[in-house]
C-alpha cells in the first residue's frame, strides 16, 4: 500500500486527497479499497462550467501552434510518468501492466499527433463563381468540452479527447469513471503540470476535473454552456446522452458498445489468427470496447482452429495483473462477473456449448476479486444473446459455409465498432473491406479488432454511436466550421446568376 | 389555370394526379387552390422504406462514377426543365420568378458538383506504425436517406441532398413540404426521367416520394431502416427530430432557423450595403432561412444608411411574383402574416419604433393572399423578440458604438446560420471572420447573408443544428467511414508497442 | 475517301484545310495519304504565344466555376462527336475502333472531372502561430500551357491537359503529333465549338493549335511566356525538353517512356492474366505508353501461362482496325516496324527465344502499311534490350523463383510508368504495392498496366518523367500556389518568437 | 576564442576537427579564422552516396511513425543546443543573436511538424468506375536526398529539408555552404546524437555530411543515385542545377533568388510599415532570400513614410552581432560589400538618389570585416539594376499612383519569392492576394516579406525556382506517389467501357 502512496505522490496526488472522501475506489485485483475521494459537489460542477466558459474566451485567442506547445509539454509529462500511471491503471482497472503502459503510450502518441495538428487545422480555400470574390472555410474553437470516460481506458480516452480539444482551442472538463478515478486523476495531474510549465498563457479553468457519479455527468450533458460532450460507455448510456445533447443542439462524440467479430477463412494463417484471438478476446479480460466477442469461422477450418485455440486458452496465465507474465487480470467487479455468468447460461439455453472457461478463479486467494477463466462458447446460430455485448472474456464461435454468409452473420448485430478478417485471399479480404463487407467503423485484416493506432479515426457505426476520435480528421468535431465568402469587388452579383433589381 | 396544367404536364405531372386528393395545395399568389393531391398512406410509407432498403443493397454496388452518370442526367433534365420548375416554385412558394429560376439553377449546380465528386469521395491512406502494415480509410454508402424539406426551397434543398446522397450510394425518400408539393414533385419527376434514361443500373425504389403531412415525416424520422435524416425547417421541428433520431442512433442533417445579421461599419460602402440588405431582407419576402433579420449599424452611419434604405424600401415593387419586375411576392399564408404582425407589435412593446412597412398590401386584389410591405423596426436594444426568428420581411435595426459591441450583439442570439459584415476595413473584416468574430456557420464580407454558392458548406451552428449540406466535405455525412488496418507481414505486432505473450 | 471527308466535315474540318499543305498525313491502315495540311509558320507560333499571353490576363479573371462551364460544353461536344473523332483516331493512329471510342470517352470523362474541380481548386487555410494572424494558401492561374502530344493518344492526352488547364485559368496552345494531326484537330475543333457557345467570356486566343514538326514544339518549349509545357513522348525527347524548360525556370509535365511489366505469381488466376496480357500487350499494337512489355512469371506456372497465351496469340485477329472484330491494327509506320525487328534480333543475340510473332502481316493487301504479328520472346535474363522500350507488340517473358527476385527484376529498368501483379495472395499483392514493391507511378492488381481511370493521377517515376496528369491533385501543376499570411492585429510579432527592436 | 571551442565542443565538434584542414572558415564579425576543416574527398563523396543508397533500402522499411520518433529526438537535441547553435550561426554567418536563436527554433518547429506528419503522409482512396475495383494512392519513400544550403540559413534550411526527408523515409546527404560550415555541422551533430539515441533502427549512412566547395555539390547534383536534390542559393546556381538534375530525370527543390517588395498604400499603418521594413530590409544585413529589396509606395504617403524610415535607419545599431542590442551585423564577405557598392553606383547611374547608407562602417575596429550602413535609394523607375537581386541591405524606393500600377511594378521582375502589402483597405489587400495580384510564392499582408512560419509552404515562382519547402504538402516532393487500382472481382472490365474481345 505504501507503494500506491508513493506512486500517487509522484503523480501529484497527495495523501490527503485520497482519504476521508465518500467515493470509495477499489482495486479489482484484490477488492481492497485504494482510496476514498471527495466527490465534486453540484455547485462546484456549475462553478467549473462557468470557469470553463470564461477560459474559452481567452484560450480561443491563443494561437493554435502555441496551444500545441501545451500539448507537447503534456506529452513530455506523460512520457515521464508512464511507468507510474501505467501501474495505477493496472491496479485500478485490473489490466496487465503491459497494457497499462500501452495505454499511457497512447496518451503520448496523441499528444504528438495533436502537436502536429496544431500547425494544420486545415480548412479549404475555394474558388467562387463570382468575379472579385473568394471563399474559404476556417475551423475555429468550439467551446468547453466535457469528457466522460469509462473504467476500461481510464487514461487514454481522456488524453485522446483532451489533446485534440486543447489544440483545437477548447477547455476541457473531465469526468472519469468512478471505478477508475485515480488513473484519470493521475493523467489529469500530468496535464496540470504541463499547464504550470506553460505558464500564464493558459487561462484559469482550462482543464478541470469532476469526481463523482452519474448525476454529475448528467449536469455536463445538459449544460448549454458545453457545446461538445464526448462520452465513452455503454449503448444504454448513449441512448440517454445522445437525445439529451441533441435536444439542446449540442454536439456529441459517442463511443459505445461493440460486438466485434473476426472472420477466419480457409485462407487464414491459423497460428496468427490464434494469437490475435488471444490478445483481443482475453486481453483486458475482454473488457475493451474493441474486445473480440464473436469468431465466425469457416466450417472447414473450425476444428483445427478450435483445437489450437483451446490449447492456448488452457495455457493462459490468469492472475494478478501486476505480476509479470500474467495475461488475464480480474473483471472490474462482481456485477461484471454476474453478467458474464448470465450470458453463458443464456447462451447455453439458446443452444450454445461451452468449450472452455467461465469459472471463477483464485476465489480463495482473492475472495473479494473476480477472476474468471476466459470462456469459449460454440453457438449453433447467432441467437439473441450473441447479438448483445457482454463485457468480459466470452467468445462465441459460429461456423459459416459461404463467404457471403460470413459477412451476413458479421453484420447482423446492432453494434458497429470493430471487426477483422483473417485471410490471405485477396478477394475475401477486399470484399470484407468493401461497401458490401463489414459495416463497422473499423475493419482490419490479419490483426484483431483491438489495438488501433492513433493515426486513424477510431469509432463505430450503428449503435456504437457513429462518431470518431483520435486520428484522421476527428479533430473537426472539436471545432466549429465557418464558410466565408469575401467580396472585394465593387459589384454585388448574386449566386446562381439571380438578377434582383 | 390551363398554363399550370401544361407546365405540370411538361414536368411529368398528369392532370389525374392533381385532382381528387385530400391534400389541397394553394398558391400564396392569390390563395387559389392549385391542386388536390392524394396523400401517401402510412402503409405505403412503410413499403417505400422497405423498397429503399432493398434498393440500397444494389445501389451501393454500382460504382460511384456510374452513379455520377445518373446525377449528370438529372442535371441535364433540370437544365431542360428550368423555366417550368422555376415557374412552379414561383406560383407555389410565392417567390419572384428570378428566384424560382435561381433555385433550379442550384439544382443544376449541385448535380455538376456531385458529378465531380463521383470520381473522388476521397478517404485517406495513412502510414502505420507497424512494419508490413498499412492503414486506409474508405467511405462507403450509408443507406436510405430521408429528405424532409420546407416550403421556401421546395426544389433546391431536395436537389442538394439527393444529388449528394445518390452519388454517395444512398437511395432517397423525399418528403416535400405540404405547402409546396408541386415544386418538389416536379423536381422529383426530373430525377425519375433521369433514372429512366439511366436504365436498369438503377434499382427499383432508388428514389421515392412521400406526399403528406408531419406524421409521415415522423415515420421516416423514427425508422431504424433510415440511417440518415436530412430535415430543413424550424428550430422547433429540430428539437423534436434531433433527439428522436439520436435515440435510435441515426444520423441527421438539420438545417433549422437563422437569425441572420449584418454589421455595417463606418468603413462600409453604404450603397452596396443597401443593395445587399434589400435582396437579403425582402427577397423571398423574408422567408429564406438566410434572410437578413438584424441590421447592426454603427451609430455614426445609421442615419445615412437608414435614409437610403427607407428610400429603397419605398420603391419596392410588391405584388404578383410571376410578373416581371416584382421584387416582393406574398407570404406563404395567413399564419405567416399573423406571426409577422405579432412580432411587430411585440417589438413595439419592447421599445421598437416601426420605421417602415408591416401593412397588408393588395388585399382587395387578392383577398385570399397575404402581401405585406416589408418592415423596418428600430430597436433600442436586442430584446427578446429580436432574438427570435420571425419568418417574414421584418428587419430590426440596432446601433453600436464599439466594434466589439457589434460582435457581442451579433452573437447574442440562439441561432447561428448566416451573417455578414459590410466594411472595407481589413481589421474589422478579419476580426469578424476570426475565432472571436461571428459564431455562425456562414460569415460573409460585403455580401448579404443570403445566396450561398454550392461549392462551400452550407449550414449553421447553435440552434441552427450544426450540420452542413452542399459543398466542401458535406458529402461525408451521407457515407459511413471505415478505418482499415491491413497486416501483410507474417508478424503480429501490437500498437503502442504492447507485448502480449 | 468520301467517308473521311464527311467525317472531317462533321468535325468542323473543311476540305480546303486538308489540301495543298506541305504536311502529309498518312493512315497506317493502308499507308494512303489522308490529308496535306499547311504547317504553322514560326511567325504564327510567335503570334500565338503573344495572343495566349494576352488571353491569360483576361481568362484568369473569369471565375473558375464559369471556366468550368466551358469545359462542360466541351464535354458535350465530345460526347456528340464521339463516333466521328473515334473513327478518325482509328484511321489515323491505327487503333481499333473500340479503342478510338474509348479515347474520346476519356475526353468526356476528364471534362466532367474538371467541371467538378471548377468549384474546388482547394488550397488550405492554416492556423498561425501569431495572434491576430491567419494563413491561407490559394491556387491561382499560371499562364499559357503548351500541350505537345504523341501519335498514340492523339485526342485524349490533349483533352486531359486542356480540360484541367482551362479550368485552372490557363490558355492552351496545342501541338499535336505530325503523325496524327487530324485526330488532334478534330478534338480541338470540338473545343472551338464549345468556346463559340460559351461566348465572349472566352478571350480571343484562349485555345490555339500549332501544326507542324519538332522545331515548332521547340519554340513552345523555349518560350519564357509559357510557364508550363506538358509533353508526351519518348524518353529521348524528355531528356531534351526537361533541361530546356528547367533552364528558363519553366514548369513541365513529362509523360515519357514506360517499360511496363506484369508479375504473375502461382496465386494468380491465369485465365484472367491471359486476358489482361492480351489487351495490354497487343492493344494499340503495343503502342501505348502503358503497353505491357515484360512478363515476369513464376517458374512453376510459366509453362501453363505460356501455353494459354500462345493459344490466345494464335487466335488474334490482326488487320484493318476499322473492321469490327479486329483486335490488332497496324504499326504507325515503317520505322516502328524496323525498330521492332531490330529489338527481336537483338533479343535473340542476347539469348532470347522467339515463341511467337514478329512477322510482317498483310503485306500484299497493304504494301504500304506495317502490320505485324505480336511477338513473344522468352529471355534467359533481363538483358540490355529488355531494359529498353520498344514501341510495338513485343512481349518479353522472364521467369522468377522467389518473390523478392520478381520485384528486383521488375524494378531493374530505367523507366517507371506502369506495372501490375496478378495474384490472389494478399501478402504478395500488398508487398508489390508497398514501399519495397513496384517503383512505378502506377501499380495495379489483377488488371493490366494499361487503361487507367481518370480519377487517379496518371504518370510515372524515373525516366518516365516524374510528373502526373489527370486525376487526384494533378491540377495543381497547372496553377501557381501562393502562401498568404495576414496580420489583422495592431502588433507586429515575428515568427519563431524573434525579438527585433 | 576559447568560447568558440567550448561551444563547438558542447555541439559535438572536437578541436581536432577544426584544425589543420584546407577549408578555412572565417567569421564575418571580424574576419578572423574560426576553423580549418578538412574537405571531403571526391572518393568519400562517392562512398557516401553508395552508403546512402544502401541505407535507403532499410530506412524505407522502418514505419513512418517510428521515423517520426527520430525526428522528435532531433527536435529535443536542437531545443537543448539552441543557445549554442544560435551562437555559432551568429558568429559564423554574422546574424544577430536573436536571429541565430530564431533560426534554430525553426529547426525545432519543423521537427515537431514532421513528427505530426509521421502519422499522416496521406494519399487518397478513390472510387473506381469498375465494379469490384478500388483505387488508392500511396506515398512511398523516394531515396537519398542531397541538401545543399547557403550561408545565410546555415542551420534551418538543413533542418527543414532533413526533418521532412527523414520522416518521408529518405536518407540525407548534407552539403553546407563553405562559408558557414560550423553552423551546419553543429546542426548535423545534433541529428547524429538523435540517431545515436534512436539506436539501431537507423541504418548506417542515414545522415551524412559533405564538407567542401562547389565541385562536391556538383557530384551530388549529377548522381543518378540521388533522386532529389534540394538546393538553396542564387538564380545563377539554379540555372545550372535545374537542367543538370532534369537531364538525369531527377527531382529538385530549388529555392533561389528573391527580389521581394512591399507595397505601401495610403491605407497603411505607416508606423507598422516602418517597423516591418526595418526588420525585413536590414535584418540579417539584407542577406535573407526574403529580405525586402523594393518599396513601392503611394506617392501621397511617400514623404511621410520616408521621413519615418530615414529616422529609423539613422538610429540603427550596427555592429558586432553577438552584442545584445545590435540590429545589423556584417556582410558575409568583401565580395558582398563590393556587389552592394556596385549596385548603388549603378542605381545612381540609372537615375537613383541615395537617401541613406551604403558606407562601410567600423573599418577601423574590424579592418577585415565588412559592415555597412543599410542603404535606401530612391529610383525614378524600376530600372535594370532594380530588377536584379543584390544580396545586402539595399532598399529601392519606387512611387506609384494607381493601385494597378503598384502591382504591375511589383510583378515586373524575374524573381518571385516573397511579397507584401501594407494596407488596411480590404479591396487593396484582397486584390494583392488575388489571381491578378502579387505573382510571388508568398504574399503577406501587414507583415514584411520575411519570417515565414513553418506551417505554410515556403518558396517562390518564376526564377525563384517554383518549388516548396516546409509546411502544407511540401513533404510530397520527398516521396514518390503510386496510384494503385485493385481488382478484387472475377471480371476484367476495361476503363472507359472499352470492349476488347
Automatic annotation (TrEMBL), chains A, B, C, D:
User: Coiled-coil stretches, from where to where?
Assistant: none
Instruction: Tell me the PROSITE patterns matching this sequence.
Output: ALDEHYDE_DEHYDR_GLU (PS00687)
Into which EC class is this enzyme placed?
A: oxidoreductase
Which UniProt keywords are present, listed alphabetically?
Answer: NAD, Oxidoreductase
- Which residues act catalytically here? 255
Where would I find the Aldehyde dehydrogenase domain in this sequence?
Answer: 22-482
Enzyme Commission number, as recorded: 1.2.1.3
Similarity-based family: Belongs to the aldehyde dehydrogenase family.
Quaternary structure?
Homotetramer.
- Indicate what this protein is called per its UniProt record: aldehyde dehydrogenase (NAD(+))
Q: Which organism is it from?
A: Variovorax rhizosphaerae
